[in-house]
Amino acid sequence: MPPRRRNRPAPTPQLNEAAQLADQLRQAGYTKRDIARIIDRDPSLVSQFYTKNKGAAFVPALQQVLTAIQAGGITDLPELATLASRHITRRTTTSGTRARVRTKALLITPTGTGTGRVAAQAIASGSARLRPLIAEAARQGLRLAFTVRLAKTGYLHPSGSRTDSPGIRRDVIQRTDHTEERSYGSAQTGGHDATDFARRVDAAGGDVTAAVHQWLVETGRIHQDAHITHLEIRTWRPR
What are phi and psi of 195, to 5 degrees? Predict the structure, then answer.
């Protein structure tokens, strides 16, 4: 009887340089979400460093960030993100031109009107794409309002409560998945100072979702453990 062939385990693929650097950052205490914020990309891209061999364009930035942490003692995420941004270049196409980045434009019109909306995937990375909208609104001295969506049980007050979202029921949208959308601020009520919210976002390390969540908790509108699933920011110029 011929000897049985033993199935040898497949060799573990070698991690590319971006994944190796990401591993070193994770060993230093940073999560994939933190790394995504540092390079201003979605956390799913960081996962693709490991699964799809991506990330070559971010190697110089990750090297600089790792050096800043290990040698310079820099740990602040916004500061690391600023450092990384100086070393991130767009990839080129086969013809040698710079590749276009598919992003959803956040436009503030001459009248001050601007809108940005994010859902679950962007929420998970701190709604970073809304930060430029808020920063520009603050620069222009605009007012803003926002709409959040979360589980009905996450709110402290019933729908239409004057204590919550000034008692106007049309500002509440109930969904079939037991979530509810509520709006806070409008041109009629004066809205919120964009400068104040920009400061809140900066204090939250650039995490727009966390800044909005903190405001809702501080003002007694939601439970501390409530989870925002959708977020929309609207701006306008005060009269």
Answer: -65, -40
pLDDT digits (tens, 9 = 90+) for 58-100: 999 999 999 888 887 888 887 888 888 888 876 666 666 655 5
114/119 Cα distance (integer angstroms): 17
Nearest to residue 22, comparing CAs of 75, 52, 59, 57?
59
Contacts of 33 (CB under 8 A, 6+ apart): 43, 124, 125, 126
Residues counted in the chain: 239
In the DSSP assignment, the letter for residue 39 is T
In order, the DSSP letters of 100-144 are PP------B-TTS-EEEEE-HHHHHTT-GGGHHHHHHHHHTT-EE
The Cα 6–Cα 4 span in angstroms is: 6
Per the structure block, which two tokens stand in for 228?
């925002």
Whether 42 contacts 122, CB under 8 Å: yes
Q: Are strands 143-151 and 192-193 parallel, antiparallel or unpaired?
A: antiparallel
End-to-end CA distance of the chain: 92
At residue 87, the 3 state secondary structure works out as coil
**Mean pLDDT of all residues belonging to the chain:** 83
User: For 171-187, what is each residue's pLDDT tens digit?
Assistant: 567 777 888 888 888 87
